[in-house]
TrEMBL record:
It is found in: Cytoplasm. Its EC number is 2.6.1.11. This is Acetylornithine aminotransferase. Keywords: Amino-acid biosynthesis, Aminotransferase, Arginine biosynthesis, Cytoplasm, Pyridoxal phosphate, Transferase. Binds 1 pyridoxal phosphate per subunit. InterPro entries: Ac/SucOrn_transaminase_bac (IPR017652), AcOrn/SuccOrn_fam (IPR004636), Aminotrans_3 (IPR005814), Aminotrans_3_PPA_site (IPR049704), Class-III_PLP-dep_AT (IPR050103), PyrdxlP-dep_Trfase (IPR015424), PyrdxlP-dep_Trfase_major (IPR015421), PyrdxlP-dep_Trfase_small (IPR015422). The gene is argD. It catalyses: N(2)-acetyl-L-ornithine + 2-oxoglutarate = N-acetyl-L-glutamate 5-semialdehyde + L-glutamate. It comes from Marinomonas ushuaiensis DSM 15871. N(2)-acetyl-L-ornithine binds at residues 145, 284. Pyridoxal 5'-phosphate binds at residues 109-110, 142, 227-230, 285. One of its GO terms (cellular component) is cytoplasm. GO terms for molecular function: identical protein binding; N2-acetyl-L-ornithine:2-oxoglutarate 5-aminotransferase activity; pyridoxal phosphate binding. CDD domains: OAT_like (cd00610).
Length: 411
């Protein structure tokens, strides 16, 4: 039978058929290989965005393509009333490589966080009763787009118009232990934090702060939940970022890089905490499907190696040196910060609110970059991007910055 002719689409098609919650660029990528992407016109781009910290092994990684094809020829989906071999293999690897004893699989970071927040409340209910239900999170944090996760997230704009949102949630400033001490209590069931705030501006946790948060959670019998959706799976130069802080959480969530773009998320927990998600308390139709888990296992096998993790730290230094060199010439950044290959460059006050103009200018020069809020340029490339691509991409970035600054001054 003849295959149906592929329907032609353009950027205008988006405005005709999609809900307008996104505003994608005019570029329509059609092919990717490693850290390079080509659009419909054949223009080549270097990818410093990584699909928002997702394609940690780049595009069309041959090992992952082969694993996907092999699994696609076996099983795509199993109901969770069945035992699922790929899911069990992946869970075993995750528990062997982390603090965790138990794993719950979902399809996204938001779903993994939803499970973590439900677990925290259920754990407190089981052990201390219904009064111990309050969750503390941090201003500028981001934990997903479900109603519960935007409520825990510390950015009011994501809740606007969706009220009433779930209650029993408080916020304080990140890296401010005194504010946390002022609001934590015996009613607190969990403290939720990112080891490095992603959407909030690429802000790493102070090591002392992170350790004091752990101590407060122990003091008040609250679970410490780490959201490593963006920072996990090698992004910071260790398998998970918590390893660099001298802190062990009770619950951890991961997604993004875990599937290198195939939808998969996971919540990891200690056995003591995990017991509270007893039979029937939570679930997911697609979570932990064989396709996702087979791919995620291959991702872990490649990333969690001394060569790749050491390479992340080496590439971090190249990026930071390159950004500092650009800044010495053009004086556009007031701070360059981050961990591993999650790097933020905060623009100077005179460019406040205009970091987004760098994205447009960079695309014109053949480079994909991101922002983290209106003032921070964010880089989250493949963990195995070549040094030549870093150098070429930084050259393109410098050209884009020169153009964007000139346009800003002319406006």
């Amino acid at each position: 039978m003849d295959r149906k002719v592929t329907q032609q689409v353009t950027r205008a098609t988006f405005d005709e058929v999609m809900v307008p919650n996104y505003a994608p660029s005019a570029i329509i990528p059609v092919r990717g290989e490693g850290s390079r992407v080509w659009d419909k016109e054949g223009k080549e781009y270097i990818d410093f965005a990584g699909g928002i910290a997702v394609t940690a092994l780049g595009h069309s990684h041959p090992t992952l393509v082969n694993v996907m094809r092999e699994q696609a020829g076996q099983l795509w989906h199993l109901a969770n009333i069945m035992t699922n071999e790929p899911a069990l293999r992946l869970a075993k690897k995750l528990t062997e490589k982390t603090f965790a004893d138990r794993v719950f699989f979902a399809n996204s970071g938001a779903e993994a966080n939803e499970a973590a927040f439900k677990l925290a409340r259920r754990y407190a209910f089981d052990h201390f009763g219904p009064e111990k239900h309050e969750i503390i999170a941090f201003n500028k944090s981001f934990h997903g787009r479900t109603l519960f996760t935007v409520s825990v997230g510390g950015q009011a704009k994501y809740k606007e118009g969706f009220e009433p949102t779930p209650g029993g949630i408080q916020h304080c400033d990140y890296n401010n232990i005194e504010q946390l001490k002022a609001i934590i209590s015996d009613k607190t069931c969990a403290v939720v934090m990112e080891p490095i705030q992603g959407e909030g501006g690429i802000i790493p946790a102070d090591k002392e702060f992170a350790q004091q948060v752990r101590e407060l959670c122990d003091q008040y019998n609250a679970l410490l939940v780490y959201d490593e959706v963006q920072s996990g799976v090698g992004r910071t130069g260790t398998f998970f970022a918590y390893e660099q802080l001298g802190v062990t959480p009770d619950v951890l969530t991961t997604a993004k890089a875990l599937g290198n773009g195939f939808p998969v998320g996971a919540m990891l927990a200690t056995e003591k905490a995990a017991k509270s998600l007893a039979f029937g308390t939570h679930g997911s139709t697609y979570g932990g499907n064989p396709m996702a888990c087979a791919i995620a296992e291959a991702v872990i096998d490649i990333i969690d190696t001394p060569e790749v993790l050491a390479g992340v730290k080496e590439r971090h230094d190249i990026f930071v040196a390159g950004l500092e060199a650009i800044n010495e010439k053009h004086h556009v950044f007031k701070d360059i910060r981050g961990m591993g290959l999650l790097i933020g460059a905060e623009v100077i006050d005179s460019l406040a609110g205009k970091a987004g103009t760098f994205i447009t200018a960079a695309a014109e020069e053949g480079l994909f970059v991101l922002v983290a809020g209106p003032n921070v340029l964010r880089l989250a490339p493949s963990l195995i991007i070549t040094k030549e691509e870093i150098t070429e991409g930084l050259t393109r970035l410098e050209k884009a910055i020169v153009k964007a600054v000139a346009d800003a001054k002319a406006a």
